[in-house]
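Repro:
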Amino acid sequence: MVTLGRAARTLVTLLALALPGPLAAQDPETRMMTPREGELPAVARNRLSDWEAVGRLNTRGVSRLGMCSAALVAPDTLLTAAHCVAGPDGNPTAPEMLHFAAGWYGGDHAADSPVASYEVHPQAYAQVQLDVEHDIALVYLAEPITEVTPLKIGSTFAPPYALAGYHDHRPHRLSARFDCDGRPVHQLLFVDCPVRPGNSGGPALSGGPDWQVIGVVSASARGNALVVPVDEWVRGRLLQGAPYTSE
């Protein structure tokens, strides 16, 4: 299935971030707080505690080092982009190479856990190469995170939208905007706020001030975000609690 026309697909850039060196702690205050053109601005330090459910999904490996963004949506479940765990060609990353740090801020974080397993949307790689319109995955943590309140899944698709995550210009501090407009494009949501490498998998939210997750950032198109909406597969898996089962 071709989900986007050839001309449109040439403008789409996936946003997983390959890092040139170790994921060492750095002082997030050393980065300019004034956002550059084409990036989400840093979240004010006094608001970071409100967004500890958003974190970094770090990848380590013999020849691979990188990160995406992800959101805690249940005590042991993350929502992120499929290509963050399986790449553009569906080549899976071993779960033991993945680690989530909630509320990452320099060397500090609210909580963390290695990854036990994950599942990508069943249509994400149905035609071998990634179908951007289904670029979404659920990641299951080895250790449930109880110190952080998960974000709720919403069903209202109406602006203003919010985007949150980590990007290459400021990888050690959460960045976000809460005033984005948006419109549907095919089965995606085009959100006119800028995204960069590292923002992949970060949550798109609606319904502020009680923000709820309605999708994940997949890619950029002309610098702005392409968001994969939460669909019935995601809702169904979360309702089933697989593999998490609440008491």
